Amino acid sequence: MSANIDDDQSPPPFMEEQSSLGLRHRKNPPQAASKRPSFQLAKIDSLYAPISNAKATSGLDASSAGYPLPPSNPSAKSPPTDHSYVESLMGGMRPTEDSKLHGLAISTIDKHFRYFTLWLFCVWSSLVVLMYVFVPKENIVPLSGLEQRAAFMSMSLIFVSFLSRIIPLLGFGRRGSSPLSYLASFNIGGDSATCDQGQGIRKRWEAATQSFSGILLGGLSIQVVAILTDFLMAFFPVPVVVDPVLGTRVHVLRWCEWFPCATFMTFMMEGADLFWANDCAVLKEQTHANDTLERSQHRTQDGPPPDFYKKKFMHAAAQGGAVFLGLMFPFCPGYWTWMCSMVVSCLLYLTNYPRMLQRRSEIPPTLRVGATVEEAERYNSAITALRLRYVCTAVWSIIVALYFISSIGPKFAAEDSILRNPAANMCCECFFDVLSKVLFLVTIMDVHHAIFDPFARSERRLEELRKLMSAVWESSSDPIAISVRTGSNGGVSTLLSPAFFTLGGGRGALRRLSKEEIKNLFWNKSILFQLSEEVFQRQNDGDNNEFCKVKPEDILSVDFTEFSTGLGQSQGVVFAGEVVTPEMGALRAVAESVVKAWQVTGQEPVFSHELSWTRGNNRNVLIYSEAKVSRLDQNSLIVIIRDISERVKVFETEKKILYEATSRQKDAQANRFTRHEVKNGLLAAIGLYETLCEAQRSHLFKDIEGSFGFSLGESDEDTNVVRCMNELGKSLHETLDTIMVEAMTRDLIHDVYRPHRERVDVASVISGSASSFAYDFSSSRNLNRFPLICKPSPLPTFYFDANLLRYLHRQILSNACKYGKTGGVVLTEIIYCDQQKLLRVNVINLPGEFHDKLVAMGSAAEDAVFRKGAQIHEQIIVDSESTVASTAKKAELAALPGDGGWVIEKCAKVMKGQCSIKFQESRTVFTFEVPAKPWGLSERAKTPIDVKTFRLPNDTWGFAIDDSKIQQKLMVKFFEFAGISSDKIHIFGRNSEEITSFVDFVVDFMGEHMGEHILLIADENLDIVDEAAKHSTISGSLLVESIRLRLLPEQERFLLSLVRSANDSASDIAIYKARAHGFLAKAPIKKGNVLEVLAPLWFSRYPPQDRRMDDDSLNSRRRSDSFSSLESSMSLNEAIASTPVDILSIVNELDKLFTSESVVDNWELIREKLHALKGDLLTMQVGSKVIATVGTINSFRANHSHEMLVERWQVLRDQIMSLVSS
Questions:
Q1: For residue 410, which of 66, 324, 522, 924 sits 20 to 30 Å off, Cα-Cα?
Q2: Is the pTM value of this prediction over 0.85?
Q3: How far is CA 1152 from CA 531, 722, 725, 1168, 1214, in A?
Q4: pLDDT (0 to 100) of residue 506
């Protein structure tokens, strides 16, 4: 059915309104009685019933738990309601432990009132019988004259007062005059409306008697006792005795009435006052600023004090004892007995005044701000009880005064005085007895309605609850749904709060409003709809793990209604000329949550649900929601739907940040390991490779010289050696390049990479011919498929990060090969624009499969290339009808991450450039542009001194510290290539003593050689083994920092300290530069670039204008003079080769470790020394014996038992001894 309300289906007029918790519903008019009830009426009735039934059982304490309120529909039989629901609702109005104590106090006092009522009738009837038995018969006489008429008038007045109070309570008279009159208008119990009048009266009487509280029964009982007493005195003979002392006539039945009535009335005055001590402390704390600490601590006590009820019984007993002694006055045997009774009676009566003053001082004039409902009730009851004390004490004081006047006055009055009239005393007693009984009953009724009437108390709390629920219903930002089953196997009726209209934002005429404005517009509007039973049947028949969707036909009807505003049924809101109706897509999404809420189990289950629908503009709306279900009973529940979309987004963002942080941390650890361990190993291997190359060249040169020119050609064996050496060098450099690119990629992804610029030939870097080892370009690169064009040719030299440029070009080529024509030509154009100072690299490939679809996508495809995780070919292949060949392409694309273009763009941004791609009809052009200036215009202008003519001062010393023997020997050659003489080179790190004493040595040395420059190079990670065989790592940069801190400023100016490390991330370099003067990357040492690497660092430390060098020293010798030929100096091989003494020293240390009993425990130390031994052996030129010995060392990795390790060591030791001896 449509959600819109047709014009011809106007709602029926209001005939009668009933409200419970703010719900309003409409009855059908009489003329529509024969028609089928409207849908909305049925829904409202179904929604109204459980809440009204909850109201019907909303007793707030033990005394009122059995007093039902009427159901809202007299003809409807409602199922039993769960009383725990009402208790939970009332618990919201009573949030403290004081509420339970309050209810317990009321129920206890009310129970005592009922017991006192029985005691009243028993004592009065017993006293009357005793008086008739023990009083002489001659003293039992009927009253006459004025006494009889006074008794009759007193009975009549009290009876009229009694009827005026009891009739409204029984439900007769004007409707609405009391809660019971409202109750009487309904057929309690849900019987047929045609039941006879007698049964209706009986039910009214039962309900009325159940509604009487103990204090109301007590007040009415006192009236009954007074009426019966006056009736006996008016129409029957009554005992009349003469007081032996005063000589006055005493009507004994009057005192028989006063004794139990005075006792009971006093106890009711005390019982109506429920204000206990801690309430007083709380209230007085608001009015008195200087409360003591004891009162503040006493305030924290909960419940009435221990003597709370005892004081009430004692005061009631005191007043009853005073009246009982008055009854005994005529029966006293003598004067002194009478006088003692009189004194005790007066003393007991006078306790009224201090008790009244005490309670008046304890009750403050006003109620404190923020008091609870219970405190307010107790305060009001105390004020009412205090007023009752005033009335009773005043009337009783007058009665006591008249007693003495009427008893003593006749002795001193004249004969014709009214005081001598025997009926005067009777008239006064009747008058004030009527006055006290009428005023007392009026006040008792006020106390009854204020605190003891269960209906009044329930109505007050339900009214507060209704206001609270109305405020929550209308102002809540979360949609609230009240759902009720319409039958045993039927659907459900659901009422939605106004917050429903804010779901997904406004639409149509509301799209210009914010959520808050939409909520204010619909603040008094609610949605009422019916769900058919088919949706629940489908859910029960289907799989429990699958959730059935709500179809449009499952929502039978949708209407606007109201919750608590008294405006009646409302139609749709007219806004900007458009009638705003509920959005059916959103309504179906909420209905699915309601259906799911009926399926869940548990006391207060919470489940998550996705609210999704599509609007008219094809815009999908998705809201992540969390629903909390509270069951009222088995046929009704409340669902609160909370929008947690922002929470989900925050969670996803936090998860993504955590994932990226974890990935960054893991990548940083992997980079550190790659740079330090792998790179160090490769650098050592490359050093050994260069040593072997140099040795081989020296050997060939000597062979050529020894041939005296007869055979200048190379033998096949020599050719194979050269080829193998070239292949070895190529493999080592390619492996080093691979791991450096891998580490660089991780830093690029996390935006922590900083480029390392150097002078590069762009064409050589891109083509791959810039390697340090010699091999044919044609053999490693197919120029036919990957041609390279330079404009102009040759290109000038630029200042770039060579690794970054090479990696960027490789990624572009990779994308061209994957998505271009299979086996097609990929052209690279390198164009330099001198005017714009711009370098442009174009990679052009032929169109591949689905190229036409990429062209059709236009800019969308171009943007998708550079989006992270995007694969533009994936959707194209899925949508296309391709053959088996495309199936393989699908599998290939499915394994791709789709981040190639994204990484390329990051590379471009690091180089301060930009990249783009164009899908043209006949080709695809990937363009990379970066600002560039030739080396001669940029860096050379910044360096006044030509690097080619740069050399170090003659007084420069070379200090280096490294824990690797290979690196120590390479550093010797580094300093020699830099032009430092061998006698000024000091290498440290051979043992832990040299590392730990390095700082002291450098500081002392610079103090002794003032004015001489020192070039200090320190390895970052220095591993040492102490005397306890414990491994530790010392930071070389920290050693340099310690040296700089200990030097004087005039000493430190002659020091150039560099940190050399394979860890060259941006964060590490920043640390190195903060501790030292610069950073020196670990890389293969080349003769031609040592001074080129040192020159920028030296100029940065010593600008040309500050360098204090002799002019003749600058030009005394050329750069080539710093190098000696291989014939005049020891070869590189001899420089780094280990001597037999070094090897035997390590063998002796290992022999001591293997002869001990703790070989396994010392395995870490043994492993380190075996590793060092293997490095020393690889520097020797022995051949197969070295290879066999190294293999034996490698075999130690798989043996961990003591016996196997010792056995292996004996074999290795024999091999080394044979090797050294040869």
A1: 324
A2: no
A3: 89, 42, 38, 15, 15
A4: 55
